[in-house]
Specification:
Blueprint (H helix, E strand, L loop, with lengths): L18 H14 L14 H15 L9 E6 L2 E6 L4 H13 L3 H28 L1 H13 L1 H6 L6 H19 L4 H17 L7 H10 L5 H26 L9 E4 H6 L11 H15 L1 H11 L9 H13 L1 H6 L8 H19 L3 H24 L8 H11 L6 E4 L5 H6 L3 E3 L7 H10 L4 E5 L1 H4 L10 E6 L2 E5 L8
Parallel strand pairs: 2-3, 4-5, 4-6
Antiparallel strand pairs: 1-2, 6-8, 7-8
């Protein structure tokens, strides 16, 4: 048997409602706070990441790419380009649902993330309940459900909601097996760990806490657990080799690679100098008390360290410290990376809620007030990035539809909308996303024309202010609210 139950279960008290009722209420809350933007286009906060996975799903479903070659609409080397970074299991799941049931790919992408978010909250609550009792379980699930980053990226067409689910499911399956469960639990844990590593290979750091769980177990299962871990790492190993070979010089597909493991790994050389700057730690604290946990969640996290029960999860916390130290710039610049470290923080915050219940014995009114305060603070950080389309992005969908009416299905187009590729996605055409400040813009547009592009579609501020000098040579063919479409044929070429 595992030593997973060294702490007494917390009894049901007026401060801790019957677990099933509160558990289901928590899942409903998880869904409700994520539904506000379910029908919103994939615009705004980290739109490029969202539309990349949408492109991968769409190109796979529509037969333009195999599952082993994630493909974007951005043209590189004259063909749609390859995203040879992670294996986007969640994106392919979304694509499969879209192909079977139809409807909007954007909505399916968001709905898939919401489903993963709800499942993550459910499993984390059940897991922490097994470890520490019902009040800690509900507290951990509550902090995860209302974490602003979990709301923002837990309803977006990205991989991060699935990452949290695969992470928690791995721990849950392993815990059930170590507690005397059937071998199917170990198989489930191994499968989830494999999907986790395929999604983000840096989650290999979880071998530390998972190994600690096995080492604490009284069950003599080291060899079997090691075999399961090895089997889980095999798909990610094969994928990394495949991605590396595809992007390697001399590969027939190398000239069409948009992003790759080799390029990504080559851009980071630890230790990053950012680790020695005070600003990194200032922002880390700001994020922990704000967009990651909110002040209420951070208070519960702090309370969780008051006792000794958190030490059981020291290996998990240490693994997350190692991850942040290895990739500090990722966390500093892109807060969705914090989704990877959320689960252990929520576990300790759940212990903090248990401390509050045991020591303060809050009444129902005080508990409800704390829940409402947490909800308000969470929405304060989450509403704008999760549910509001920025004004400069609101013309993108209309601009995409307009250029579709002018072009054939596979005709390349040039797009311009800030530094993102979202306009190219909504144009539903292969082509190029060109930044307004691109050096020698006229030469770049001429290169697009020579490769078959007849039109440049511009959306956002670039379409409403004075035309850049390079665009004066082209004819505005169509205008709409917030966008313009230019003919890339010069008048002096006999147009």
């Amino acid at each position: 048997m595992s030593d997973a139950r060294p702490f007494p279960q917390t009894t049901h008290t007026p401060q801790t409602p019957a677990f099933p009722l509160a558990f289901w209420a928590l899942l409903v809350l998880t869904v409700v706070v994520r539904l506000g933007g379910i029908g919103r286009p994939l615009l705004g906060n980290f739109a490029t990441k969202s539309v990349m996975y949408a492109m991968i799903a769409r190109n796979w479903v529509e037969g333009r790419a195999g599952i082993l070659y994630p493909t974007l609409d951005c043209l590189v080397g004259g063909k749609r380009s390859l995203h040879m970074l992670e294996f986007s299991a969640s994106a392919y799941l979304t694509g499969g649902l879209w192909s079977v049931f139809g409807g909007s790919l954007d909505v399916w992408g968001r709905a898939t993330s919401v489903a993963f978010s709800v499942a993550s909250v459910a499993l984390l609550s059940l897991l922490v309940r097994r470890w520490h009792g019902p009040s800690a379980g509900l507290g951990a699930g509550f902090v995860l459900a209302l974490s602003p980053v979990s709301i923002i990226y837990g309803q977006n067409f990205m991989l991060d909601a699935s990452l949290v689910f695969f992470c928690v499911a791995t721990f849950y399956g392993l815990d059930r097996w170590l507690d005397g469960g059937r071998a199917a639990w170990l198989l489930a844990a191994s499968l989830c760990f494999a999907l986790l590593l395929l999604t983000k290979v840096y989650m290999l750091v979880l071998l530390l806490p998972l190994g600690a769980m096995v080492a604490r177990s009284r069950r003599r299962t080291f060899a079997l657990a090691a075999c399961a871990a090895g089997a889980a790492m095999l798909p990610a190993t094969l994928w990394c080799l495949h991605a590396w070979r595809t992007a390697a010089p001399g590969s027939p597909r190398a000239m069409h690679v948009y992003s790759s493991l080799a390029g990504n790994a080559g851009s980071y050389r630890p230790p990053d100098p950012l680790l020695w700057t005070p600003d990194f730690y200032r922002q880390l604290l700001d994020d922990l008390t704000g967009v990651i946990l909110t002040p209420v969640g951070f208070m519960l996290l702090t309370a969780g360290f008051l006792g000794s029960r958190w030490r059981r999860h020291a290996a998990w916390l240490l693994a997350m410290v190692i991850l942040v130290a290895a990739l500090p710039r990722k966390f500093y610049e892109m807060n969705y990376y914090y989704m990877a470290v959320l689960p252990p923080l929520c576990v300790v915050a759940g212990l903090g809620w248990q401390v509050v219940c045991e020591r303060l014995r809050l009444g129902r009114t005080a508990t409800l007030g704390l829940v409402l305060l947490a909800l308000v603070l969470s929405m304060r950080y989450a509403v704008k990035p999760a549910f509001v389309t920025p004004e400069e992005d609101r013309a993108v969908v209309a601009a995409g539809r307009a250029v579709q009416e002018l072009t054939a299905a596979e005709e390349p187009v040039a797009t311009m909308h800030g530094a993102t590729i979202d306009l190219l996605y909504y144009a539903n055409r292969p082509g190029w996303a060109i930044a307004p400040d691109t050096p020698e813009l006229e030469a770049v547009l001429e290169a697009c024309r020579r490769q078959g592009a007849r039109y440049l579609v511009v959306a956002g501020p670039e379409a409403t202010r004075a035309e850049p000098g390079a665009l004066h040579a082209y004819t505005p063919l169509a205008r709409g609210e917030g966008y313009r479409i230019y003919s890339l044929t010069h008048p002096d070429r006999g147009r």
